[in-house]
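Fold in tokens:
===
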Amino acid sequence: MANSKSFTLFFALLLLALASCAPAPPAATATPLPTATPEAAQFDYTVHTRRGDAALERLTGITWEGGYIWTPFVVHENGTYYLFYNGYSSESRGVGLASSQDGIRFTRVGAEPVLDWERGERELFSPLVYKAEDGSWVLYMVSDERRSGLSGDQVVRYSAPAFEGPWTGGEVVYQAPNADHWTHEIVIRSLLRSEEGLLIAFDAHHDDTIDIGLMRSSDGLAFELVSEEPVFTKGTEGAWDQDGVSAPMLFATDTGYEMLYLGLTRSNSGRLTSYDGYNLWVGYATSADGLSWARDPNNPVMQIPEEEGYPYMSAIKVGDQYHIYFVYGQGSYGIGTATLTISSP
């Protein structure tokens, strides 16, 4: 009997020892939570002025801008917004100046242009203005020289001691190398200053499309292309910007650059126009180096409803708010304004 009990005790101890050598069962794990989708940036905008209530209407009684006004560009200086724009008539051309305290509604600074020229003398348009280190002001414009048999559009430079002028100069700071070059037909759109010099963003009409490029200068007297190819091109087939991109509004960020731009598609008549031919549709993109760009997944991020919207737009950033200026009406009847804020995720 004792032997039987001893055997039973020995067998129990053996089972316990074997159990202690067996691998432990895997610990129970909680069901993993679904990965949160990164929150996209938020784009909030307001269209303040448009047809019938414009930031600036053309004045048909003034000869130099009686035909139409367009190509707005705004500088913010000492709390005041200064608007430069092109005025055209059947006889003459000029650059007008207006000012504003809120950046939304503008009043002309005088009835005469700050820079003018006769029709046929040359075609100047798309002013970009900045304040130089010596306190003078510099104005860049595109000079349409294709009719003169030259290789293509030129970018020319003027300077003045004050906004009102007198503006003098007109030196060529960039010209397309030949008539077949993709920058043969350009419009300069925005300008950035940095320790390295100046950076101008432009769009170029070539090969039946419009693309975006960059040019730079260390001294503001001569510009060269940042890349021999466009840095930002049309979207994929079926996209809202499938036929072209234009009006690059370039801004510096802590990580590189950001850009607002207009997307273009081809109308039934074959003309490149805004997304649906009437509204202006705005996209957003970011880049670390200005050469490789990532489109925002929510594009287009902004719509400006305008009957016969005209695909010309510029913008400045004051604080955390973007002030956007656009031309309405295919006859360029006036200049409208909008504001935009972008909230980071």
User: Anything to note?
Assistant: The first strand starts at residue 42 and ends at 49. Residues 40-343 form a domain with the Tachylectin-2; Chain A fold (CATH 2.115.10.20).
